[in-house]
Specification:
Layout: H1 12-23, E1 37-42, H2 48-59, E2 63-67, H3 69-72, H4 80-87, E3 93-97, H5 101-109, E4 115-117, H6 125-138, E5 146-150, H7 155-166, E6 170-174, H8 183-192, E7 196-198, H9 201-205, E8 210-213, H10 225-232, H11 239-242, E9 250-253, H12 265-268, H13 275-299
Parallel strand pairs: 1-2, 1-3, 3-4, 5-6, 5-8, 6-7, 8-9
Helix pairs in contact: 1-6, 1-13, 2-13, 4-5, 6-7, 6-13, 7-8
The structure holds phosphoric acid mono(formamide)ester (CP) and norvaline.
């Protein structure tokens, strides 16, 4: 049984397969979830992730059930394991947005259904797949040379850096002292191809094809907001910073955004921004991921086979 808790739970070939399916028309998608339920468990708020998953499940013939934060009670009302075992009585896939990444690992370890990470404190792999799809559409995976991430070394950055490394795109991170990645995270990215880290936004962005940022205060870090605002102040993506990127560079943001904090309004609402294409790609990427995970896991056979045939 396959799970998707981080981008490198797929091989590089499998990631390319998922991106290929994600690129296809919704009507061309295999009915990989026909007759299946998909549990969508949320411990945190969501707009894009919930809506894109619900639509993708329907495009594959399945039935999504959204489970509200107050209904979950992870390790409070019952254990993460018992939540997974219960949901697997009704559903063929469990997708969850959680605070603790270990809750996803524990649910996956039950081996009762494929588990998909819809964002944890550590990782946001569904978003990273949509981001790579956007890069492939706007620039081409084989033409894009570097993605620069300016801001917090958070869940979003980690999944994006792993994904970039897996498809052979360099990535650079500009982050203030004290907010950089752990040694374990750097080791994990290094095992896929590596990334560079600096405290200088100009150095990270110089010549990049993609400039990416995310909020400075992620969900669950609200108590740190004031100190984060002070620490990240010089890391806003401004028109001046964008001017250092490669000619034709694009701007991406996973959203939700805080204009005037991590990004200037002129950038996110300007001509280089591709954030709405990126948001729409959440649905297409979710469809590709579900087709991959649900195909072999539920039916024991290959689902749709894109041209390169690297899929299950
Ligand atoms: N990018 C993203 O995951 O958005 P939501 O938090 O609205 O789902
Ligand atoms: N880093 C952000 C991403 C939101 C989609 C958070 O975890 O809140």
């Amino acid at each position: 049984m396959r799970h998707f808790l981080e981008v490198d739970d797929l091989s590089a070939d499998e990631l390319r397969w998922v991106l290929d399916v994600s690129s296809g028309a919704p009507e061309a998608a295999p009915p990989a979830l026909a007759g299946s339920g998909v549990a969508l468990v949320f411990e945190k708020s969501s707009n894009r992730t919930r809506n894109s998953m619900e639509m993708a499940v329907r495009q594959l013939g399945g039935h999504p059930v959204y489970i509200r934060p107050e209904e979950v009670g992870m390790d409070v009302r019952e254990t993460a394991e018992d939540i997974a075992r219960t949901l697997a009585c009704f559903h063929d896939v469990i997708a969850a947005r959680v605070f603790r990444h270990s809750h996803l690992e524990r649910m996956a370890a039950c081996e009762v259904a494929p588990v998909i990470n819809l964002l944890s404190d550590d990782a946001h792999p569904c978003q990273a797949v949509a981001d790579l799809l956007t890069v492939s559409q706007c620039i081409g995976l084989d033409r894009a040379q570097r993605v620069a991430f300016v801001g917090d070394a958070n869940n979003m950055w980690r999944s994006l850096a792993i994904g970039c490394a897996m498809v052979g795109i360099e990535s650079s991170l500009a982050v203030p002292d004290g907010y950089g990645p752990s040694g374990a995270t750097l080791d994990r990215i290094a095992s896929r191809g590596g990334c560079t880290v600096t405290d200088d936004p100009a150095a990270a962005v110089a010549g990049a094809d993609v400039v990416y940022t995310d909020v400075w205060t992620s969900m669950g870090q609200e108590d740190e907001q004031a100190e984060r605002l002070a620490a990240f102040g010089p890391y806003q993506v401004t028109p001046e910073l964008m001017s250092l990127a490669a000619p034709g560079a694009i701007f991406l943001h996973c959203l939700p955004a805080r204009r005037g904090e991590e990004v200037a309004a002129e950038v996110i609402d300007g001509p280089a921004s591709r954030v709405w294409q990126q948001a729409r790609n959440r649905m297409h990427a979710a469809r590709g991921l579900l087709a991959f995970l649900a195909g072999p896991a539920l039916h024991g056979a290959a689902s749709a086979s894109p041209a390169q045939g690297a899929g299950p």
